[in-house]
UniProtKB/TrEMBL annotation:
<comment type="function">
    <text>Binds directly to 23S ribosomal RNA and is necessary for the in vitro assembly process of the 50S ribosomal subunit. It is not involved in the protein synthesizing functions of that subunit.</text>
</comment>
<dbReference type="GO" id="GO:0003735">
    <property type="term" value="F:structural constituent of ribosome"/>
</dbReference>
<dbReference type="GO" id="GO:0000027">
    <property type="term" value="P:ribosomal large subunit assembly"/>
</dbReference>
<dbReference type="InterPro" id="IPR035566">
    <property type="entry name" value="Ribosomal_protein_bL20_C"/>
</dbReference>
<dbReference type="GO" id="GO:0019843">
    <property type="term" value="F:rRNA binding"/>
</dbReference>
<keyword id="KW-0150">Chloroplast</keyword>
<keyword id="KW-0689">Ribosomal protein</keyword>
<dbReference type="GO" id="GO:1990904">
    <property type="term" value="C:ribonucleoprotein complex"/>
</dbReference>
<keyword id="KW-0694">RNA-binding</keyword>
<protein>
    <recommendedName>
        <fullName>Large ribosomal subunit protein bL20c</fullName>
    </recommendedName>
</protein>
<dbReference type="GO" id="GO:0005840">
    <property type="term" value="C:ribosome"/>
</dbReference>
<dbReference type="Pfam" id="PF00453">
    <property type="entry name" value="Ribosomal_L20"/>
</dbReference>
<keyword id="KW-0934">Plastid</keyword>
<dbReference type="InterPro" id="IPR005813">
    <property type="entry name" value="Ribosomal_bL20"/>
</dbReference>
<dbReference type="GO" id="GO:0006412">
    <property type="term" value="P:translation"/>
</dbReference>
<keyword id="KW-0699">rRNA-binding</keyword>
<keyword id="KW-0687">Ribonucleoprotein</keyword>
Length: 119
């Protein structure tokens, strides 16, 4: 029986995995088995952290808005601000409000006064 040489399929698969893990450290970029494990782990982490990033940015925006709303008035908080915002039907999302609060404080004060004074 003649000797059968394996095709290039497995080599191509390993090469693709090794290319993905080329920036990993140590054996994680060199050994095939650890490379595949690290690749699976990296893909799981990237999938998880894509949704995590959205939560983190929302928390950051809420923190920034809360800090600015508490500066001027004593008993005024983020939750009251957002509640009054929806009550007045001023539809501004948290990202835009946080940018206004950071870059243009006068504009944010105008918005909060408009919300706070109308009852």
């Amino acid at each position: 029986m003649t000797r059968v040489k394996r095709g290039y399929t497995a080599r191509r698969r390993r090469k693709k995995i090794r290319l993905f893990a080329s920036t990993f450290k140590g054996a994680h970029s060199r050994l095939t088995r650890t490379t595949t494990q690290q690749r699976m782990r990296a893909l799981v982490s990237s999938h998880r952290d894509r949704s995590r990033k959205k939560k983190d940015f929302r928390r950051l925006w809420i923190t920034r808005i809360n800090a600015v709303t508490r500066e001027d008035r004593l008993f005024y908080s983020y939750s009251l601000f957002i509640h009054n915002l929806y009550k007045r039907q001023l539809l501004l999302n948290r990202k835009i409000l946080a940018q206004i609060a950071l870059s243009n404080k006068n504009c944010f004060d105008i918005i909060s006064n408009k919300i706070f004074n109308q009852k």
